[in-house]
Amino acid sequence: MEIACNVTRQAPLIAELVNLATAHWRGGASVRPLVGEELSATFAVQLGGRTGADLCAVPDAGRHLAELATELRQALLAERPADQAARINAMIGRYGAQPYLVEDVGQPFHLHFHGSGGTQVEALGGEFATALALIVDGYGPDRFGVCEAHQCEAVYIDLTRNASRRYCSAACTARAKTAAYRSRRHA
Ligand SMILES: [Zn+2]
User: Fold this and answer.
1) Looking at the domain assignment, is residue 10 inside a domain?
2) Which of 70, 75, 107, 114 has its CA 20 to 30 Å from the CA of residue 23?
3) Any idea what the CATH number is for the domain that residue 126 is in?
4) Gap between the terminal Cα atoms of the chain
5) What is the number of domains present in the chain?
6) From ligand 1's centre to the CA of 149, what distance in Å?
7) Ligand 1 mean position to 154 CA, how many Å?
8) 103-120: pLDDT as tens digits
9) From the CA of 134, how far away is ligand 1's center (Å)?
10) Are strands 144-146 and 109-114 parallel, antiparallel or unpaired?
């Protein structure tokens, strides 16, 4: 199974955008979904470099990012594969994703999926929608989930070989293990 290395880099970014903008519980704590400039500035740090700077320069970036995050969450958590595929296809169309090769300084050509027009939010939308399509194609439709740890509704994208992921983070994996250990001792 060959998946563009882009996808493994983008999967955690997709989950992070969705979680920053839509989760009310993360890692056992109540959190406030980020909106507006707080959302765009925080996510720009995750992106880093020129992409992050370009994102902050988009007018009303936070609102557009929040819309993108909502679309991504609905696609990730769609109950039926046909519904999920339809949502991902709609995003690919809406954000005008198209494959083209890009050469970064000192690196070999690699494949990107956003058109040359549009804002950085639209570029991200195209990249992320295509990444989800490649994951469904390469790994199947069951690789997206919500963290099973107590008081956490963060989403994750599971790119493990054996589809074993159940938690959003190492911290939640540890919390769930501790909780299971305690309940066994009480039993
Ligand atoms: Zn979690």
Assistant:
1) yes
2) 114
3) 1.10.3300.10
4) 43
5) 1
6) 5
7) 5
8) 877 878 888 887 666 899
9) 24
10) unpaired
